[in-house]
Fold this protein.
Amino acid sequence: MNGGVSARRARSACLVLAVAVVIAGCGSSGTILGGNDTYSATTLTVYSDLPLLGPDGAQMTSIVDGEVLALYDHGGHVGRLHVSLESLNDYPDPTVSDPLLPNPLRNLDARIGQSAHSASADLSTVAYIGDYDSAATAISLSLNNQNDILQISPGSPYIGFSDSNPADLTGDPGAFDAYGTPTFARLLPSDLVEARATVSWMRSLGVTRLALLADNSNAPDDYDAVIASEVASDAAAAGINVVVRHSGIDTASLTRPGDYARLAAAVAAEQPGAILLGGAPDGGAQALWRELHAAMPAALLFAPSTLATPAFLHGLAGAASATYVTSPILELNQYPAAAQQVFAQYRRMFALAPSAYALYGYDAMNDVLLAIRKAGRKAASRPVLLSAFFALGRAGFRGTIGDYTINANGDSSLASFDGYRVSPSGELVLARPLS
């Protein structure tokens, strides 16, 4: 899928680009400088915060590569303004624990918070690209909003970041823009849009009875579970009867297939033709998947985009044959001509097969640079840059991921998805485009 994502490497070397663009430092962070590294009215910084290590590190590194390409294409400047990129890694280090957090791996919260604090404390900061996961964005967004920092996420589909919806967690979206003007935008469609595409696909496959499961491992902040509620809202109008709605699943703690035998039997008793899980791509979700398939080998197992990760897909075993994945990350040849030019440039610069993820980094950075150009001499003023970005968003961007608008709430007009099946080895295989 997507031009050899699985063949990507874990980047450990630094890159040196032309036009005085230098990446200083490897590992958890690096600075790409387009000129002076001391703040002045003519030096602006864009922060990027993504999980660059771990099972999804190759895709996330591709996003940063795309950011680098966009900055390179602008020569590290917008007019007389120098622009730098500070790339941070928020992948949690399992060897470091925070005694205030119940799970050592939850030091992710501290890492993301540190990244957002670093961006806010830097007087030259004008924008923040990230985070990718909704749970990560929930940590950084409030602080960025408090400091009027434009935040563009290449992912984060949780609808509560941008719009009031019955599926939102309590207090959202007001909890994230409590300090005034909205500062958030995303390039991928929200859960609301994905739910419609998923239900449309189910209907085309003849699904009439549906079971919806929700993972509440991170309660009360179950951002990945919201898709199940959105699908439930759309199913009735599509003639699909929701025969099971089950929440309270804890895939973070229950990691063996046997842990889900009773749940699978209860779901099987209702004879659903399809099952969808809203949850995180952890080992418990894999175990649940395998147990559901064992109990109902004829049932179609639907995985939303939050589960479209190597960490989840490569551990499905025999359940892979029953799995249907909805993803807004399309095949390379489905992107417009501008994307094909970026892919060609990517091959020349990195000597690697491109990934579609690179386009989302490219457009995020390019949109920031266009906003800086529109803001002109006042681009160092965060409120002015925000105003310029959302004005451009209303008019529309002609991007490498397509032509799209960004509304005042931060939602993209893009609504294209691909429906994938899963090979025995855990690779995604295109089944059909969805819209």
Q: What stands out?
A: DSSP finds eleven helices and 17 strands in the chain.
